Structures are given as structure tokens and as C-alpha cells.
Amino acid sequence: MVVTEGERVTLGELAEITPGPSGSLLDKLGDEPDGVPVVTPSDITDQHHVDTRKLRRLPYNEVARLDRFTLRQGDIVLVRQGSLGRLALIEPQLEGWLYNSSCARVRSLGHLVLPEYLCLYLSSSAVQEEMLRRALPGTVQSLNAKILGNLPVVLPPLDRQRELVEIIADIDELALVHRETADRLDILKLALLDDFLDEE
What we know:
Blueprint: E1 7-10, H1 11-14, E2 15-19, E3 36-39, E4 56-58, E5 76-79, E6 87-89, E7 98-99, E8 103-108, H2 115-123, H3 125-134, H4 145-149, E9 152-155, H5 158-199
Parallel strand pairs: 3-7
Antiparallel strand pairs: 1-9, 2-8, 3-4, 5-6, 5-8
């Protein structure tokens, strides 16, 4: 099937979906400072980034057999077990990293969809609800590659995708500035209170 801009398609028509390696292939995962980082659900932030502060790593000599699970810029890591739907867009500095079995890699095929747009689309409340609705039941809900591949995707023209990505990026930057300002004001408030109490 040939996919064109401006139609509704499935995620599987736009991207390669690869669930993470089985846990047995990551049994040497540890907290040592050396090795290849492995992204887990707890490393994924609400802002769709990877928090690099508490990463676990796999020894370099264990990585060769996991070559098909490496990450590159523009990939999306999506949580498919547990906290379903959390996702992060992979930035250049994370290339060559791995992801664990609770995640899936979504890698865009061709040039019809911007990874940034796809990340925003998959994080929308409507799509997140659809993932939960389609999830396999059990003690821990899960999504497999087939379920993810059948998710519908609205595919606007590339210029419209780019426009949305830029608008959301501007909003995120403004929100970050406001959060940083609020944090500084909280620190100032506490300092003023401490000074006042010291004078009493």
C-alpha cells in the first residue's frame, strides 16, 4: 500500500515497531558507570524526554547480540507494559542506547511523517485512551506490536506537521520559563521567611 499525506493510516504503515529484548538478554544490567545505557519506563519523563540521572547500563561485551534493539535519533520509545503510553523522542546524544522489554521502539519509515509530530500525536489524550482501550488485560496491562501497529494515525501534510511541532515547542519553552521563574520565587519566598524568623 502506498501511503500519501492527508489521510488516516495505521501506525504500522508509517513505522517499524520493535518490542524490547526479553529480560534474559538484559540479565547483566547493572548500576555501574560504564556500559551502554538501557532506557526503562521510569526514565521517561512527562515532557517526552529521557531522564539520564539514574540510568542502568549493560556491559559493552553484552551489547553485540542486541544490535537490532539500538536506538537512533528520531526513534520513539513507548512504554508497552505497566505505565502504558509513556513515550520519549530519542535525541542525537542517545544514539546507540538500548531499551528494555517493557518498551517498544517506534521508528518512522520513509519521509511522510516527522518523528516529532508522531511523538506528539501518540501522546495526545485521545490516542492514549485508545491504547488503554486496546491493551491486553492481565495483572499488568500490555500492548504488543500488532496492537500498536493497528492504531489509527491522522497524517496531515508535512508542512502542517512542522507547523504544529513548532507551535508546541514554543509553548513548551514558555512553560519551562514559567516553571523556572516559579521555582526561583519559591526559593526567594523561603529565604525571606528564614530571614524574618532569624530576626525574631
